[in-house]
Model the fold of this input.
Amino acid sequence: MTEEERIELANLLFPNIDKTRDYYEDKYPKRNLSEEAMVTRYGPSPTGFVHLGNLLSAFADMVYAKQTGGSFFLRIEDTDQKRMVDGGIDNIVSVLHDFDILPNEGYSFGGEYGPYQQSERTEIYQTYVKDLIVKGLAYPCFMTEEEIAEIKEEQEINKTKIGIYGVYAQDRDLSLEEVKEHLNNGDEYVIRLKSPGDAKKEIEVVDCIKGKMKFPEHDVDTILLKKDGTPTYHFAHAIDDHLMHTTHVIRGDEWVSSLPLHVQLFEILGFEPVKYAHIAPITIKDQETGNIRKISKRKDPWFGVKYYDENGIPIEALHLYLATITNTNFEEWYLSNSDKDITDFEFSFDKQAIGGTSFDEAKLINLCKTYFSRKSGEEVYNETLNWAKKHDEEYAKLLEDNKDDMIKFLSIEKDGPRPRKDISKYSEVKEEFSYAIDSLFKKENYSKNESEKEYDIDLVLDYVNNHLNLDCDNEEWFNGVREFASSNGYAASPKDYKKNPDDYKGHVGDICEAIRVMVTGRLKSPDLFSIMKILGKDRILKRIDLYKNR
Ligand code: GLU
Done:
């Protein structure tokens, strides 16, 4: 076709497209940002399910953009209507809010480079396709599904590459007359790229995470616009990331194999190339087989993001975990910098894992424990209350009614260089501090936690009634228990007991254990004296009574 014919063809196919490429190039000028600023984007498809891998890439988008003074935007990639789910878009936005991974621009966040929803951008894609047709770099293809299926079958038998390329690209060189004939017949068509590639040649792509990669050139006439005039993922990616001035495309590495096509699209469209950073997938060691496998929606409850909220994993702790997956040196840095937080860490692509990262629940729990240990009692109280309001209203009400006590309990052993590391989730507070709220403390608390031992109730009653002093410091209190132990046939220290076990009924620790079990229903608890101070003598006596009548 001559240039005039191609112009005629373009107008015939897109009579309603009256804007030009230049119009859009002017409408979306280069961003006014510094050289090192990264512009990143999270481009989810609204399939209704947001998983940990999605959060991981959005998290990386956020930290890289933030630390370089760039921009992180949300683009809804809804070109594939088959994958759409009702409420899927709202779900994406609310997950980003819930997990505090907030874009500063994009769908529902505003910005100058919108619309940020691909289904609203059809006119833009068609403008660029129209231009490619004029340039002879794209063409309408009228091949039927059956024809394509036959070709595929033949390619499978011959073990050659699948797709429409070379001799298979039958409509590549149709004349204007032939196209017109198809159009007059009302034949359906897609628009295909007229790929200039030669699979015998190689291209080299440098990925920010994976480094140098070599591929054969892309030579397939990939579909750019589908029959309904909407773009394929590949074409929309090139147009959008160009017009939105993305600098770094951070995405899952299932897209690596599309790189030759993406690089070619940028080239033929005359766009400045973007940088790619392909994130390794999250894997898991299978419980049954012990093999490393891909995560699965069905087998791994933690894969869906709802899990974290429902189980009461603090958002900031999840961020810490995402940071450890993002950069291999993060965890060590965080654990040895107790006064710093994520924003003080400098993330870099060099420190990103190239192979799969295994999901490590123990690591997540440990980070959660560290997180809680660094929070004051009041902070833990407020966050637990917020969580409970959503997931356990009854407990939330009790927390509100017992606020002062609860904060005091949560503050025990928080000061000092090694603060307590007892809880890892908001959902554990109720159980872990089960002795803190009287109305929750029932006889059953004893059967859950008590040791097999029969404790001497009269001895503990005598101690509490006649010897317990709550108006002193911990050391003085403990000396008092020692004295009480000695005068009741118990050794004042475990050491003395061990030397001559036959001389004693037990040692001071046994008395403390008896008190602890009666007061808290648990064999292990934070500092016993602090707990007793908060409860006061009356409530302690009520607990002993409850124990007696259990
Ligand atoms: N819409 C694509 C997906 O959901 C995003 C891929 C990308 O970030 O480029 O898989």
In short: DSSP finds 23 helices and 15 strands in the chain. The longest strand covers residues 202-207. Residues 205 and 213 are 5 Å apart (CA to CA). Residues 528-548 form the longest helix (21 residues).
